[in-house]
Amino acid sequence: MTVDHLNTLLLESAVILLFAVVAVRISTRSGLPSLLIYLGIGVALGQNGIGISFNNAELTQVLGYAALVVILAEGGLKTSWRSIRPVVPAAAVLATLGVAVSVFVTAAGAHWLVGLEWRTALLLGAIVSSTDAAAVFSVLRMVPLPKRLTGLLEAESGFNDAPVVILVVAFAATGELDPWYVLVGTIIVELVVGGAVGYAVGKLGAYAVRRVALPSSGLYPIAVLALIVLAYAGGSLLHASGFLATYVASVILGNSKLPHGPAVRGFADGLAWIGQIGMFVVLGLLVTPTSMGAAVVPGLVAGAVLVFVARPLSVLLTMTPFRVPWQEQALLSWAGLRGAVPIVLATIPLVSGATDAQQLFNVVFILVVVFTLLQGPTLPLVARWLRIGEGDIGQDLGIESAPLEKLHGHLLSVHLAPGSRMSGVEVSELRMPKGAAVTLVVREGSSFVPDRTTVLREGDELLVVTTDEVSEAAERRLRAVDRGGKLAGWLEHAEGPSAVSRTSRRAPSLARKPSVAGKASLAGKPSIARKKTG
Q: Which pTM value belongs to this model?
């Protein structure tokens, strides 16, 4: 490649990226999923459009895998462990047993209704049974659902790529299939090892990043993304699930309160958008629309079986033991969005030379486009119809920590999100540990130095300076007040999610008994405060 070729390539890439950015705005206003616009860009650039000739399925698969790693990383970094922890068992069952049900039901429909051979039908069922992390994460940003459902959908989309990839590789391989018990054992081993690799990289990486003061804030996002890629590569080289290792490491790192956390998440968000745009455009280039006529009917039939039979049945069988209400099961069934993941997985048979691989790719493409167009824009309507469209969408307290190496301290930047119970609290009522102080408040574009009686408000930005020894305690205290208000910690010895929730439940009893409340306020305050700070 010459410099002239590079200049032309950069010009074309910049135009495509700018058009894709504008397309996000269009998709937000119209409800049309942005992935369809990106696929359309690729098709328009391809053989039946401008005329770019591209048929390299192996390169598409490699680029798709790389993009999926970045997309899973971004989703994991933004996933709140506090939100998904209660639903992890349900998500794990839905992502494994639920996927198995979906694969076999879809395969049965493709075999009996479309006429595919059993092995090809099973391969099709495996390819389309994974929900797409990029599609799910993007839709959940626009639909206000209860945190339990949001966490369940996020965790499922992060977990189910791993078993599906294993199934697709097994069904697409040439030769005889391994016995079912060998296949199940392989899946279990790969998931366990992949999860262990992700956990180890996440924990060790978080420990290292918190304790190594880097000379530039821009290095923290690079270090975190490098750790996540390390988890994927390490898991894959050990013949385990690299995708599960990626998601587990991302969730651990995202919930470890790393320095410059918002900058890390912003960097990952930008990379994920580039990954989505590039992946969908390349997938669109690989498509030849004039050759897809024979795939329309099989794609519609298989998609109908998947969306209206297989997915609801898998949700029913796996979620009923967890006592999930039928309305939420219905929404989980409709929210099983497909996107780039099935199309990327459809390149595996193309690369391996499986029977009817090109026809299978076309069927998957038709299925994804049609049913994403059906499910994506209608999901908010379905949520409102089921009366679960109004969820708890309050944001967690935003805290960014910057290490002050030479001063042996930390600077915490705190944002009071809407709904924060820190609003209305005086600075003195924060009861920060000794060695931490609120030094500046930014409110409505103006900044001022607060005193002990300054009342905090929603939308305020606080600058808190702490010593190294109390930085974590100060952050815990701020989060406790954010969740429990000025009474957080008065009646409990620990300041955390459980302590705050217990305090909140006991607060009404204090209101009904003023004398008890007064005793707690006067007699209990000094001793408890000293225990907190000590």
A: 0.73
